From TrEMBL:
<feature type="domain" description="HTH gntR-type">
    <location>
        <begin position="17"/>
        <end position="84"/>
    </location>
</feature>
<dbReference type="Pfam" id="PF07729">
    <property type="entry name" value="FCD"/>
</dbReference>
<keyword id="KW-0804">Transcription</keyword>
<dbReference type="InterPro" id="IPR036388">
    <property type="entry name" value="WH-like_DNA-bd_sf"/>
</dbReference>
<keyword id="KW-0805">Transcription regulation</keyword>
<dbReference type="InterPro" id="IPR036390">
    <property type="entry name" value="WH_DNA-bd_sf"/>
</dbReference>
<dbReference type="GO" id="GO:0003677">
    <property type="term" value="F:DNA binding"/>
</dbReference>
<dbReference type="GO" id="GO:0003700">
    <property type="term" value="F:DNA-binding transcription factor activity"/>
</dbReference>
<dbReference type="InterPro" id="IPR011711">
    <property type="entry name" value="GntR_C"/>
</dbReference>
<dbReference type="InterPro" id="IPR000524">
    <property type="entry name" value="Tscrpt_reg_HTH_GntR"/>
</dbReference>
<keyword id="KW-0238">DNA-binding</keyword>
<dbReference type="InterPro" id="IPR008920">
    <property type="entry name" value="TF_FadR/GntR_C"/>
</dbReference>
<dbReference type="Pfam" id="PF00392">
    <property type="entry name" value="GntR"/>
</dbReference>
<protein>
    <submittedName>
        <fullName>Putative GntR family transcriptional regulator</fullName>
    </submittedName>
</protein>
């Protein structure tokens, strides 16, 4: 086997390994966006079509979601969306806030002028995206903003732990929540100022508050969409 053939084979293997996670990510987004609700069945065929994969990665992705508590399997019938509460959402965001807050504090000690300049650029681009109503661009820039802070923290293991929590949370539709977009525009500059002045305490506190606020906005959005009934809400 040639080097090119081995490289091509490795790429295909990596892609195959990533397909179940792509499926899981797609279904998580549908759950958290309220497109599918607790107790509803998740049909395999539409998921295959939406993600562009065969049945096998979809089954593997659903098993991954089952291990995370997002879906349940009904024998001989398939998978249904598992029930979850406001507390479940707040718990996920609490874990994210603790890790992200510590990373922000470490970034305040380590961040370079070049990294600060990159954050300033991201914020400027985000204002343009908000003005243009470009939700995908807003989402991408939000992800890049936090990624840059995590890189500046120079704490690889802690960032990996954060990543394992964040993958359980939705991403794509944050930009459709008006309050979340407003919070990002207002709070990101304050966070960057804390980083610029190397104020570790303020950076930690602001990041934790920023993420906790995100949880409140998401819960409010799901309530509007009828995610919980008065009898089952907690």
């Amino acid at each position: 086997m040639t080097v090119d053939a081995r490289t091509h084979g490795a790429r295909n293997a990596n892609r195959q390994q990533g397909l179940p996670e792509q499926v899981a990510s797609y279904v998580r987004e549908r759950i958290f966006s309220g497109e599918v609700k607790p107790g509803e069945f998740l049909r395999m065929e539409p998921i295959c079509e939406a993600v562009g994969v065969s049945n096998t990665p979809v089954r593997e992705g659903m098993q991954l979601l089952r291990s995370e508590g997002f879906v349940q399997m009904v024998p001989r019938r398939g998978f249904i969306v598992a029930s979850f509460t406001r507390r479940d959402i707040r718990d996920l965001f609490w874990a994210q806030a603790q890790l992200a807050g510590e990373l922000a504090a470490r970034a305040a000690s380590n961040i370079s002028p070049e990294q600060l300049a990159r954050l300033d650029q991201i914020m400027a681009e985000n204002k343009e995206a908000v003005a243009a109503g470009d939700n995908q661009r807003i989402t991408d820039l939000g992800h890049e903003f936090h990624r840059q802070i995590n890189l500046a923290a120079d704490s690889h293991r802690l960032a990996l732990l954060l990543g394992s929590v964040v993958k359980h949370l939705p991403n794509r539709f944050y930009a459709t929540i008006e309050q979340q977009v407003d919070a990002t525009v207002n709070e990101h500059p304050q966070l960057v100022e804390a980083l610029r002045t190397r104020n570790t305490r303020a950076a930690r506190s602001m990041m934790k508050k920023h993420i906790a606020t995100t949880a409140d906005h998401l819960i409010a959005k799901l309530e509007e969409q009828g995610m919980w009934s008065a009898e089952t809400a907690k």
